[in-house]
Write a structure and sequence with these properties.
The complex is a heterodimer. By secondary structure, chain A is mostly helical. Chain A has 2 helices and no strands. Chain B is built from 7 helices and no strands. The chains are: A mainly alpha, B mainly alpha. The A-B interface holds A 6-7, 10, 13-14, 17-18, 20-22, 24-31, 34 and B 13, 18, 21, 24-25, 28-29, 32, 35, 97, 100, 103-104, 107-108, 111, 114-115, 118-119, 122, 131-132, 135-136, 139-140.
């Protein structure tokens, strides 16, 4: 299988694991709606941060 | 509780009535660990002697974090410590995906540490009642 596909799929899976476990373990009393919102916000933040890092690394590789 | 939570992810939540959440933690953390094993990742015993040329601090930190998923971590460590006859999980250090697999193990161990600490924090720490009472208000105002 394509190397890139495996890495991107792994990345998405691991972000899902980290965000879901962090949200469910950290916010014990929050209602489901709040938990889901927090999960998506954290998923977006972490994915965005890693995407930004990937762009930086890409341009550093060009230099 | 901490020892059993280390061996069995989600145990601390399970015995305190958060059964669905505990089962979710168990399934997701063990699945992550086993996926890493399927990629031939394994827990490797690092070199502890700093005079040894093979000494590497990153390897030691990786080992410590991976071992926070206690049950599967110990099983994965067996072939490196005892011998390959006890390799219950896939074990091949030079496999092309072994590093990625080890990263899965790292995430699983790190998140089990977080679950352990949060279980203690929610159910056993001195200020647990305060945190339970104030949690809904805090959640509404918390945007982090």
């Amino acid at each position: 299988m394509n190397t890139g596909v495996i890495y991107v799929a792994s990345l998405i899976f691991l972000i899902l694991v980290v965000c879901s476990v962090y949200t469910l373990a950290g916010d014990d009393n929050a209602p489901a709606g709040v938990l889901i919102r927090k999960f998506f916000r954290r998923f977006g933040q972490l994915a965005g941060l890693l995407a930004a890092l990937a762009v930086v690394v890409h341009f550093l590789g060009i230099l | 509780m901490l020892l059993l939570s280390w061996l069995i992810p989600g145990y601390g939540f399970f015995i305190n009535g958060r059964k669905k959440r505990a089962i979710f933690f168990f399934v997701i953390l063990q699945a992550t660990f086993l996926l890493g094993c399927a990629l031939r990742g394994s827990v490797l015993m690092p070199v502890w002697n700093f005079r040894d040329p093979a000494f590497n601090l990153v390897n030691i930190l990786t080992f410590l974090v991976q071992m926070f998923n206690g049950g599967l971590g110990l099983i994965s460590l067996l072939p490196d410590v005892v011998g390959k006859a006890l390799a219950l999980l896939p074990y091949q250090e030079d496999y092309v995906w072994a590093d990625l697999g080890s990263f899965f193990l790292l995430v699983s161990g790190g998140m089990n540490y977080f679950v352990m600490v949060k279980a203690y924090d929610h159910f056993y720490s001195e200020n647990r009642e305060i945190s339970r009472e104030k949690a809904p208000e805090k959640v509404e105002g918390d945007r982090a």
